[in-house]
Amino acid sequence: MNLTKKKLEDASAENIISPQQVESLYEFLLAQSQDVPKFTFTHVLYYLGGLIAIGAMTLFMNLGWESFGGAGILSISVLYAAVGLKITNSFAAKNLAIPAGICATFVVCLTPLAIYGFQQWLGVWPDDSVYRDYHRYIKWHWLYMELGTLAVGAIVAWKYKYPFLIMPIAVTLWYMTMDITAMISGGDLTWELRELVSLYSGLLMIGLAFWVDIRAHQKGDYAFWIYIFGVIAFWGGLSSQNSDSELSKFLYFCTNLIMIGVGVLLVRRVFVVFGALGSCGYLGYLASDVFSDTWLFPIALTAIGLGIIYLGILWQKHERSITKKSRSLLPVPLRQLLEAKS
Fold first, then answer.
1. 32 inside domain
2. Residue 283 CB-density burial (10 A; 0-12 exposed, 13-18 middle, 19+ buried)
3. What is the rounded (10 degree) CA torsion for 146, 152, 153, 158?
4. Nearest CA to 56 among 101, 106, 105, 103?
5. Which residue range forms the structural domain that includes residue 337?
6. What percentage of the chain has pLDDT greater than the value 70?
7. Which residues contact 53 (CB under 8 A, 6 or more apart)?
8. Global pTM value
9. How many domains, the chain?
10. What is the pLDDT of residues 215-246, one digit of tens each?
């Protein structure tokens, strides 16, 4: 629910609350939501600047840094991390939670670079790959960098408790599944194996995100980024599967519909977006391949769409009673999670 000052003033005009209560309540709600990411110019600047800084030391790292050697890369990474922690503490002291969380995340994202430099310095780097390949290729020896990032990420997240810190942890978990598979398979990582690993690792990440959501939803949205990368991995692996069976394709469609339902239930848009993409893809397949010469298909699809709209009307009329009865059957932690998101 988007509660604006205009709505509070409308409530005052209906004598539901007094004009004095409008100002007090609005100030209270504003203070409560100041640390919640919103699509405002201030927050866009925060995240744009933070992502540029993080990208500079990760995705956009060039070969120029290799000239510093392992010791130089390690030293510069440690120096950057020290400055990042200093800025994080400064922002935290001023109750600027979002920029503080972004700066703390920047520190975590420096970890794989520091470990790479350390390995180069010791002369134990196993091949001629360079740091910028870390975000492009699947190799077993990235595991040292990933384990270190998870350890540092867990420590920094435990200390500062900013939800954005979960982002590099979620990305690292995603990378790690592929690299562990490469190690187990001896480097023979076929596309079929990649798809299956992506599918099942995505399911595991979604399960982890759900557990985190139940345990920590009252403190912050720590599950957001795990849901994001879990759904991307799961849906990507699912959508990459090849099948000539119409039943399999229909089950794919049903899975995407279930994703939409889960997204609505948990108020997680990422499920809805990818579920909608998959559903539209299946309907497009039916229109172009299965029923390409059938003039009744668009009519039938229109009727189904109107039927779904009618179901929405019925749901709106009976939503309160259905929700109350269905939630009474759920475990208490799950019920509390759903009520918190209502």
1. no
2. middle
3. 150
4. 106
5. 293-342
6. 89
7. 106
8. 0.79
9. 1
10. 887 777 888 899 999 999 999 888 888 777 88
